[in-house]
């Protein structure tokens, strides 16, 4: 049996933390190492962690964000596989057993993830099988660019081969949202990404959850993700066109948020960026001979003929 290192990043999670830890300790898969990274909590999280000191390894660090905390845990992990669980989510008992079995059966798999149920703040499940439902409904430009197989993969649903995680450099610590898309995109270059159809966890939806936060952090992360995708798909004309539209859409949304807050100068700057990407996409769609700055071949040949005469 191969060891699985479970990494739980924690920041002010006292309300839900105990149930999260209990869901790991209740796994039917036996060989588990549980690493909790306290990312600068100022609430009662440390007290709760002390109750489990005989069952977990606790690392404390200054607040650096969830991605940095996950990477910290991964650096000291001893398992062949790395599993991640956010401090407000809950695993079902069979989750790891099912996912490790997939790795045993599919040696080219680098990431295995489970289907996800959604629960409310109080822990009541109100939607089931949301990964496949979201994929079935999704028609976004981003998914068109990246592909459905890397979309809607929550960190809490992931188990990753450790050597593959290390090869791609782990989570991008500069991304405070979108890291759950960025990592699978990079891992897919190394092997298969496999979805287990059975639900493996409950994802908690509540006002304090990171995915519901907005502002500059979220938009700056979105901009960085777009730039990384643009660098990856430089030679793919269709995806480059889609990215121009995605950039324009992103900057318009960011500008509108500033506009609503009365920050007109910043909103104007972002609207200009949106217009630039919109224009760039328009120019790229033009036939090469009609793009600004290009000279038709027949004109060049005509000029050469005149010089010969």
Q: How would you describe this protein?
A:
The protein has 309 residues and is of the alpha/beta class. The chain is built from twelve helices and nine strands. It has helices spanning 17-25, 45-50, 66-76, 95-105, 130-137, 141-146, 162-168, 179-187, 215-232, 237-260, 264-285, 297-308; strands at residues 4-10, 32-39, 57-61, 81-84, 90-91, 109-119, 125-127, 158-161, 192-204. Strands 1, 2, 3, 4, 5, 6, 7, 8 and 9 form a nine-stranded mixed sheet that branches. Helix 2 links the parallel strand 2 (32-39) and strand 3. Helix 9 packs antiparallel against helix 10 and helix 10 packs antiparallel against helix 11. The protein is globular and about 65 Å long. It starts with a strand and ends with a helix. 35% of the residues are buried. Residues 295-309 have low confidence and may be disordered.
Percent helix range:
40-55%
Strand percentage: 15-25%
SSE class: alpha/beta
Total number of helices: 12
Secondary-structure element string: EHEHEHEEHEEHHEHHEHHHH
Low-confidence stretches: 295-309
Main sheet characteristics: 9 strands, mixed
